[in-house]
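WARN retry 2 of 3 for item q-0093 after timeout on previous attempt; input resubmitted unchanged.
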Amino acid sequence: MISSEDAKQKPVPSPDADSAALWRGLRDGVLLLQHCDDCRNVQYYQQGMCRNCGSESLTHRAASGRGKVHSFSVVHRAPGPAFKDDVPYAVLLVDLAEGPRMIRTYTGGNPEDVSFDMDVVLVCDAIDDETALPRFRRA
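OK item q-0093 returned
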């Protein structure tokens, strides 16, 4: 059972062997995407094999961090006590310039100002010395 104090804490990512490089990159201010050396597929979120061809020959490369809003939703009701001070906020589905889509929150502006096809850029929001969360702001 989750205590009321635990419910007030936001979840923190738990990197595993597949995602450790991604989280290190974000901590350092860089979004790393996996590129398949065999079929040239570019993927986000990291895993041990290419989702397109099954190859394990993957290389991490820095992404531009640029994209366009494909879709979005403005959240007016907090999903739990830890998020009550954040509402309203926008959750974006972003088409990255490199191809993959990424779901992240919007920062740096009124969530009601988000629009379809809006140009955005990734920012790395440090939550402690070891962890930064990817978010998007208007480009």
